[in-house]
């Protein structure tokens, strides 16, 4: 299929211009690819493109995206990447994301837009299979010998390869797998109510536009299982899940359980459960630890707790954490948000159950995580392992100003 889903930053004219430029480049140089946009973006830019592009009706979008998309390209900041990942929040798998940093904060964005020709070429042509076993270790692997020789690698991450051939160890894209949280919301009787919650994808406005129609995918192609990724009974977060007091003047009172054991009654503005990726987002502002994205863990971070002894916790990835609203909340409804989007309000006795999503292979392919395309390091050891920390360390120093000294003369 080789369909490229382009997600530009909203309400940013310069990004829209860049998206048109990128789309023309892909169409002219990779004629076998179809380009897909969200419907409101497609209606904005299709008049500037002399070739058909594809979209989906908002009601069918999440199922169609999961079934048809092989690669996601984002143009914007970290919020744009979250928006793209949220389109697959109710599915087991997410296509690889090629992110161009064009927003306010680009901690997650790997590439500058002026590198788009090289970035897409290396992603499309690298042909380097990355095994799920390698992704579970604190590194990513560059192209294997079998891939360099053009031999099939049954353990590889096939959707990254496209139809290309490997360009060698020095010209290859790699995958950084960012773990997600698996979230279940349960009523006071223990029933999972996720199916009653709208998807976390961005709500697309009613178009109400006239003019040349956009080529639209047919919903009948999606299949009952929700595409190759399949529908999950859970929702997924790449950054964090939060319960907070909202507009109420009183602190939230939340009982926290870890692997079935009562941990504490939290009295605070709220509670965050974050991934390592989310450790540099809301959790960081709330005083949480910074965790490398390859560390298999999740974080519990209180938001302005009443007790000064309530410190942030870092737990193993597959720890089962339950947040239950205490009866002492006086019947208040507290908002639950996933990756910054409010999902619903929870009341006394309701639970939010969270654990790390598992990475696994099935007959239909891989499941779990958000694979992000990153540039290969120029430094490799004798076994072909690159140094994956370069961009992360650079982001800490350049964007977050880690341990930045005070004073203009520093």
UniProtKB/TrEMBL annotation:
<keyword id="KW-0418">Kinase</keyword>
<dbReference type="Pfam" id="PF20143">
    <property type="entry name" value="NAD_kinase_C"/>
</dbReference>
<dbReference type="InterPro" id="IPR002504">
    <property type="entry name" value="NADK"/>
</dbReference>
<dbReference type="InterPro" id="IPR017438">
    <property type="entry name" value="ATP-NAD_kinase_N"/>
</dbReference>
<dbReference type="GO" id="GO:0019674">
    <property type="term" value="P:NAD+ metabolic process"/>
</dbReference>
<comment type="similarity">
    <text>Belongs to the NAD kinase family.</text>
</comment>
<keyword id="KW-0547">Nucleotide-binding</keyword>
<dbReference type="GO" id="GO:0003951">
    <property type="term" value="F:NAD+ kinase activity"/>
</dbReference>
<dbReference type="InterPro" id="IPR016064">
    <property type="entry name" value="NAD/diacylglycerol_kinase_sf"/>
</dbReference>
<keyword id="KW-0521">NADP</keyword>
<keyword id="KW-0808">Transferase</keyword>
<keyword id="KW-0520">NAD</keyword>
<protein>
    <submittedName>
        <fullName>Podospora anserina S mat+ genomic DNA chromosome 2, supercontig 2</fullName>
    </submittedName>
</protein>
<dbReference type="Pfam" id="PF01513">
    <property type="entry name" value="NAD_kinase"/>
</dbReference>
<keyword id="KW-0067">ATP-binding</keyword>
<dbReference type="InterPro" id="IPR017437">
    <property type="entry name" value="ATP-NAD_kinase_PpnK-typ_C"/>
</dbReference>
<dbReference type="GO" id="GO:0005524">
    <property type="term" value="F:ATP binding"/>
</dbReference>
<dbReference type="GO" id="GO:0006741">
    <property type="term" value="P:NADP+ biosynthetic process"/>
</dbReference>
<feature type="region of interest" description="Disordered">
    <location>
        <begin position="134"/>
        <end position="154"/>
    </location>
</feature>
């Amino acid at each position: 299929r080789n369909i490229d889903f382009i997600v530009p930053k909203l309400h940013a004219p310069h990004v829209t211009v860049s998206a048109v430029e990128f789309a023309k480049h892909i169409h002219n140089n990779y004629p076998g690819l179809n380009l897909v946009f969200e419907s409101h973006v497609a209606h904005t830019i299709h008049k500037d493109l002399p070739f058909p592009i594809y979209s989906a009706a908002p009601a069918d979008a999440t199922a169609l995206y999961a079934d048809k998309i092989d690669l996601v390209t984002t143009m914007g900041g970290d919020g744009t990447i979250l928006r793209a990942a949220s389109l697959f929040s109710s599915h087991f798998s997410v296509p690889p994301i090629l992110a161009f940093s064009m927003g306010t904060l680009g901690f997650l964005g790997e590439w500058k837009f002026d590198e788009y020709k090289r970035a897409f070429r290396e992603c499309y042509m690298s042909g380097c299979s990355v095994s799920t076993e390698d992704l579970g270790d604190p590194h990513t692997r560059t192209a294997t010998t079998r891939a360099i020789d053009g031999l099939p690698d049954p353990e590889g991450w096939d959707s990254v390869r496209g139809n290309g051939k490997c360009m060698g160890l020095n010209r290859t894209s790699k995958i950084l797998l960012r773990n997600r949280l698996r979230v279940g919301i349960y009523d006071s009787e223990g029933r999972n109510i996720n199916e009653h919650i709208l998807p976390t994808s961005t709500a697309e406005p009613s178009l109400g536009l006239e003019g040349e129609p956009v080529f639209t995918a047919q919903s009948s192609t999606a299949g009952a299982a929700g595409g190759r990724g399949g529908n999950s009974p859970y929702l997924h977060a790449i950054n964090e899940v939060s319960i907070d007091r909202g507009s109420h003047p009183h602190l939230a009172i939340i009982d926290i359980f870890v692997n079935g054991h009562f941990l504490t009654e939290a009295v605070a503005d709220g509670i965050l459960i974050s991934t390592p990726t989310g450790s540099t987002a809301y959790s960081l502002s709330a005083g949480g630890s910074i965790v490398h994205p390859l560390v298999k863990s999740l974080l519990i971070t209180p938001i302005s707790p009443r007790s000064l002894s309530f410190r942030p916790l870092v737990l193993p990835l597959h720890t089962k954490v339950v947040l239950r609203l205490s009866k002492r909340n006086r019947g208040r409804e507290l908002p639950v948000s996933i990756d910054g989007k409010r999902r619903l309000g929870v009341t006394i006795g309701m639970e939010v159950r969270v654990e790390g999503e598992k990475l696994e292979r099935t007959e239909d392919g891989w499941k779990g995580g958000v694979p992000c395309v990153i540039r290969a390091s120029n430094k490799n050891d004798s076994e072909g392992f690159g140094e994956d920390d370069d961009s992360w360390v650079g982001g800490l120093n350049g964007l977050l100003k880690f341990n930045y000294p005070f004073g203009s003369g520093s």
